[in-house]
Amino acid sequence: MALATLLTALLAAVPPLVVTTTQDLASIASAVAGSELRVEYLVPGIANTHDVELKPSYALKLAKSDAVVRVGLGLDDWVLALVENSRNARLKPGAPGNIDASENCSLLDLPTGKVDRSMGDVHPYGNPHYLLDPENGVLVARSLGRRFGALWPDRKVVFDSGVARFERDYAARRGQWAPLLDKVRGMKVVSYHRMWGYFARFSGIEPVGELEPKPGIPPTAGHTRALVEKMRVDGVRLIIREPFYEARTPESVARSTGARVVTLAPQVGALPDAGDYLAMFDANLRLLAEALGN
Amino acid sequence: MSVLRLFLVLLLAAAVQLAAAQSVGTPFGQAAENPSLSAVGDVAGRYGLDESHWFAGMAGVELGVQAAVDPFAKADFLLHYSTGLLEPHHHEDESAAVAADADEHEHGAGLGVEEALVTLTSLPGGLQASVGRMRSRIGLVNVQHLHDFSFVAYPKIVTGYWGEEGLAVDGLRASWLAPLPIWTELVLEGQKALDEHGPDITTGGLNLFLPFGDDFGLSVTGFAEADRHQHEEDSAEAQFGLHGFGGGFRFKWKPAARSLYTYLLLQGELHGRTLEEQSYTGFYGMAEYKFARQWTAGLLFEQAGLPAEQEEEPTENSASLSAAVSFWPSEFQRLRLQYDHPLSGEAEDQRVTLAWTFIIGPHKPHSY
To answer: How many domains does chain A have?
Structure first.
């Protein structure tokens, strides 16, 4: 009896495990939950979440977890196959432990007409890179606070204070970013993949094109020639490269146009300085400003 | 079989309507509850040194309908229509025969149910169970659909020992995920014959996966198969016993930071099988390397003891080497050029195959 009581007490002392699909979501979930939850992620920030190897070890991690947090909007639908393999009923779609972080976010690129793959690998529910706008990061933090509070009501106070702390941190950073935002606002940029629309909404930069002719389709010679011409006409000075894409094409376009290539972090962990969610914006704004300043 | 053909036509018509509904960019309404519909097409051409072996055309179509039934179960239906074009013994005259009567199953040609199963997804204790027709989880390749394999045909240990398209089980599968620090899964499958001449099949397998950081992974598998073995067509004598076994490994290096551009896959399997009171063993080893975002190259060596056509020499040793290069214009279509070189048998068996595979619809991701 005493042993059973001891075991129950030990199990109760281990915080519940929350697994997120990406390092971005893990960073926000950790900020909300503090030490009340163990938060782990599946795919590191250096990886392209469009192209994920479905390892059984991921399913094993999910088998042991109490909740899964996913980006949604089709970006990480691969996790649903892993959830099925995990045999963990707590994580099934529709269960309280299956959390779609996009549910309250402000979205871009919502198609209004017919969508098919002749348009490339488009996402019919909206552009899923919404965490590149920190305002959406705040909305996700609030949403996670509510969902975690519903799952673990006895820890709700901690989650609420975690959300409030995250909002204060963001407000403080926003003040620090003001001079950098003034510097980069209105800057025309080209990126490798169509993923910087949300960052543009936040920072005021102006994306004018992508190296990929359509989302998910590798650069072609014809599209690159047309893009070079457009960049010359529009006076584009910067090409944003995401670290998991090759460097040869952006550098070639940069040589043809006189633009500079700047490698930014599209998600937490993609660059050494982007160690947490707000630090990712520190790093990206600093890199953009430096690229303009030199 | 004509009923199946009618079913396929109706399913295709439904697919067109549902795809149109799903293509509107809203998650709401009836389309959100429709099942996932997908189709995989294979167009191929082949040239053999024997000049009668030159032909091209549609090789096959796979139509998939998949959805959750309710919170406790999901259903998968996969129909496959094959012209037999990529079967090892295909000849032009057979192609004509196939066109004349698609219901014939000579050399794998015809329309068939590849998989039709319901899976219970809410069982406790790490259990999962499926009932219906399913590709057996013996080894690594047998469970794969051909369009997911790295070469244009299954290895001979699959087609020679388990059936033209590998082993499918009409029955029950139960799997259990052990509560251990590494992925350890036990799988048990059973098929009870509907009549006394049909095969009873039982398979058991163990699957392990060892991750090495974010970039490496090693799968190891082993299985055994027991069936009721009929010695002669009309004989009442039948023995239920262990008639198959095997094991294999899959090692994959795919650096997380460059996953779009490179990976290396090393894989091998050894199978043993008793057929007509003769025991055969064989193996294959393969390597596939992704050397650019849209390109992969692969090598396959295989050697297998196979039933020979001449009864006085019941075992024929077949060894061959295949090389394939694949180009992916996008994630949803692939061109593959493959050269097969026999190391035993006739030099005329050399073949060059060009296969074009394309996918429409939300093709489900496959496990590692």
So the answer is: 2
